[in-house]
Amino acid sequence: MITLSGLVIELSTGFSLRVDGLRVKKGETFALIGPNGAGKTTLLNALALLQEIKAGELKIGGKDALRKAHRLELRRSMSYLFSRPYLAGGSVYENIVLPLKFRGVKDSGQAAEMLELFKIAHLRDRDSRQLSQGERHRVSLARAFVTRPKLVLLDEPFSSLDARAKESIIADLSKITKARRTTLVLVTQDQEEALALADTLAVLKGGRLLQSATPQEIFSRPASEEVADFVGVETVVPGEVTAKSDNLCSVRAGENTLEVISACAPGDKVLVCVRPEAVSVSWTVEASSVRNHFRGKVLAAVPRRLEYEVSIDCGFRIIAAMTRQSVEGMRLKPGDEVYASFKATAAHLIKR
User: Fold this and answer.
1) pLDDT on residue 157
2) Has residue 287 got a pLDDT over 80?
3) What domains, with CATH codes, occur in the chain?
4) d(CA 138, CA 288)
5) pLDDT for 54-79, tens place per residue?
6) Helices (H), the chain
7) The sheet that has 78-81: what strands, in order across it?
8) Most CB atoms within 10 A, among 112, 203, 219, 224?
């Protein structure tokens, strides 16, 4: 659906965005994630043909999007949603049919279909100024989909919603896009939001694309320390591969040896990355297939939403995610000596 290569954008502020290559498949949901100032919205605006591109190639639906002759047709094949649901005065129905009116197209049931799909049929005749925030978002989405766009671009569209409204709208949006095979490109800083919707993620930072892959690949096998840090890999240990048997690498990190399944070779200097949910904490070493067990001292147990983040000094700092029930059941406190364990398949090596 979208392919770009050698993209260069330079803003008057001095910020530059450079993307060597990116591909969005037809019918997939593609999320752009990264910290503030990464260039996510700049890239989205480029895809919407709203941002001047200094160099590179951009094709949408197989057509050269940088040719002026194609721009009107391509713009009419897409919808763009901002972070706030901007609605016009009038009723919900009048808002939803606006894109049809702009195109000189008669409403032949498209609006009624959107009202049903986005579960707002009961709001059809309500004044747009009398809607809740969640209802405004649903109307905005219905309006975006009423023209049956091939491409929908969303710039942090759920940032103003509470968790329950966000979860409900994301679930409905996912069903609709999958059923219609609509290509969706989403900008977000909310990783849970991206995981709930996206088939593919791209991580941007400082105007550079760091990694593009499936959510599972990025969260479990980040390509760099920067990506690992952004997606919540809190245990990152420098070391060197000292031996290898089949794909099982022995990694020397200070006084410890860690075992990790990897394609790295002896002599490689690496970073060992372990996600907090992959680490288990116990008083003793339990009999299992787990290869990595390290005795250490609890430094802190800090509540994070429904879990605790437990920091342990094992000669290197390791972070474990534990349920409140587990922490309270073990009565963990700073100074306790415990074992932190993780499987060789749960860790990931990044070459330094």
Assistant:
1) 86
2) no
3) 2-225 (3.40.50.300), 233-351 (2.40.50.100)
4) 49
5) 999 999 999 999 999 999 999 999 99
6) 40-47, 68-76, 92-96, 98-102, 110-117, 133-145, 163-180, 191-197, 215-220, 225-230, 324-330
7) 63-64, 55-60, 2-10, 16-24, 208-213, 200-205, 29-33, 183-188, 151-155, 78-81
8) 203
